[in-house]
Amino acid sequence: MDGEDLANNDREEITHEEKEIAHEEFLEQNDSDEFLDEFGCSVCLLVAVQPTSLTCGHTFCRICLAKWYLTSKKKQCPLCGQAYQGHPQINIHIKNMSARLYPKQMKEREKLLELSLEDKTILQRFDKEILNKRPDRKTVGAFCLGITLTLLVFTSAYLTWFWQFSDIHSFTAKPVQFWKPSDVKDWLDDLSWTTEYIHNDIQNNIDGNILLAMDELSLLQHFNVSEPLYQKALLSAISKLKEQGVKMPSTLWEYTADDMNTS
Ligand SMILES: [Zn+2]
Ligand SMILES: [Zn+2]
C-alpha cells in the first residue's frame, strides 16, 4: 500500500513539474516581438513599462510619456499628436497582458525603473504638473468660440421660425424675405393706387422673395400691370423695399404697431 501511494505521489509531482516546465517554455516562446505592436511603446520601441493609454488609444511607457510631456509641455499624444484631457492612468489590462507575454523584459524594465532616481523624479514631476495644468488658452478660446457659434445658430434659427410662423408682428417690421402672400397683398393694398389695376386672385401666390425678384415682365404676368407709368412706380416701390429690407411704417398705426413690437 505504502509503496503504491509513494509511486502515485511521485507521478503527481512529475506531472506538476512537467506542467510548470511547459508553462515556462510557453512563456519563453511568447517572449518575442510577435505582439510588440500592441504592447510596445512607440517612443522607445520596447515593451511598455507602466503602460499608459491616452484618449486616442495609443499606449506608451509612463516614463516615456512623462519625458515627452516635460520636454514639449503639451498634453499631446507623441504618436498622433491628438490632445488628451485629464490625468492619464496606467492601463492595468495591458500591464497584465504584457507581464504574461513578456515576463523577462517586463521584470527587467520595472527593476531598472525602480532603481533610477532620475526616472522617479521625472514621473513625480509629470504627475504633479499634469494635475495642476489648466486648460491652455487655445482650448479656452475654442470653447468660447463654440458657445458663440451655437448661440448665433440658435438665434438665427429662432428668428427664422419667428418670422415664418409667428403672426404677432405686423408685416412692417418683418424682413421682406419672410413675407407671406398675405403680407405682399397688405403691402400692395397700402400703395392704394394699385387696387384698381391689380386683382386679388392674381396676387395669391406671390411671397416676399418672388416680389423682390420682379421685373417689368413679371409685373405684367403676375399683377397684370401693363401701364408703363404704374410699372415704373411699382418697380421703384419694390427697389425701395430691397434697399430697406423691411417696409418702413408709413401710417400712424404702423408706427404704433412697430413701436409695440420693438419695445
Ligand atoms: Zn517607452
Ligand atoms: Zn495617439
Automatic annotation (TrEMBL):
Key words, A-Z: Membrane, Metal-binding, Transmembrane, Transmembrane helix, Zinc, Zinc-finger
Residues covered by the RING-type domain: 41-80
Domain SAM, residue spans: 179-244
Domain of life: Eukaryota
TM region positions: 140-163
One Pfam match: zf-C3HC4
GO molecular function annotation: zinc ion binding
Protein's name according to its UniProt entry: RING-type domain-containing protein
Source taxonomy: Eukaryota, Metazoa, Spiralia, Lophotrochozoa, Mollusca
Gene, per the UniProt record: ORF76357
